[in-house]
Amino acid sequence: MTAQTEPFLRPWRAGDAESVLEAFRAPDMAHQGPPMLDPSAATRWIADHRWAASPSEFSFAIDIAGIAVGNVAVRDLESRHQTGWVSYWVAESARGRGLASRAVATVCAWLFLQGETFRLELGHRANNPASGAVAARAGFSVEGLQRQKLRYGTERFDVVACSRLATDPPPAVELLRIVDLP
Ligand SMILES: CC(C)(COP(=O)(O)OP(=O)(O)OC[C@H]1O[C@@H](n2cnc3c(N)ncnc32)[C@H](O)[C@@H]1OP(=O)(O)O)[C@@H](O)C(=O)NCCC(=O)NCCS
């Protein structure tokens, strides 16, 4: 990849609405947020994920050449136990090249560097091996199986619970640059 197309992380921008709409067209994005049926839903999604929308969450767009192709979010950041919850998605067109793993590892490193987070958690459906591979590559360890935790429609799903601690060894993935933070 040339320097120009090297992916990086940045805050979400109002101008990303079309990219969000496009990303949510993938069938496996159905449970990653509210129904994304029109541009106004994408605009609302971006407003909800704007930088510092809340003191307990941060969302980063994964940017390639000016186009937002993915999201890594940390929410439920909590100071007493120093924990937070990580989630992620990548647009279909940008999958399979390690972007999610690099982006998740980068956000973890960024948070640990601030010194106020010790434990990050995530959960993925047991039938989502790609997400499990991302978690493992980003340095998360499996803690167990949460039986039938999620209900989508009439179906229930087991969830694999994972965590990464500030003291865990950092994963061997190349981190991304983070730009344009206020
Ligand atoms: C899961 C998701 C984020 C992966 O994004 P990505 O940028 O393609 O991820 P990466 O390229 O960093 O890594 C994908 C890993 O999954 C593996 N993978 C992909 N499809 C797979 C499958 N069907 N079975 C097993 N592993 C699979 C790849 O081999 C790769 O692992 P490797 O690097 O060890 O070979 C993306 O598919 C997505 O957004 N899915 C829909 C939303 C979602 O499921 N989000 C997670 C919710 S918990």
From TrEMBL:
Annotated Pfam families: Acetyltransf_3
Database matches in PROSITE patterns: GNAT
Residue ranges constituting the N-acetyltransferase domain according to the UniProt record: 7-169
Signal peptide, first to last residue: none
InterPro entries registered for this protein in UniProt: Acyl_CoA_acyltransferase, GNAT_dom, Ribosomal_N-acetyltransferase
Name of the protein in question: RimJ/RimL family protein N-acetyltransferase
